[in-house]
Design brief:
This protein is mainly alpha-helical. Helix content is about 65%, strand content about 0%. It is built from two helices and no strands. The termini are far apart.
Length: about 50
């Protein structure tokens, strides 16, 4: 299979919808907020140590 043909690239390309489960934007915002809070907490703890 020639990887440089347009057909092969179309077959290999992953649709963007596969990367994210179908969740509402609010759920993603909440998830991102929680991750940011935890990351900030660990960053502050590491700096204060």
């Amino acid at each position: 299979m020639d990887l440089y043909t347009q057909e092969a690239r179309d077959a290999i390309a992953v649709p963007e919808t596969w990367y994210l489960p179908p969740m509402p934007l609010a759920a993603w915002g909440c998830l991102a907020g929680m991750v940011a809070i935890v990351a900030l907490y660990y960053w502050v703890e590491r700096r204060s140590a």
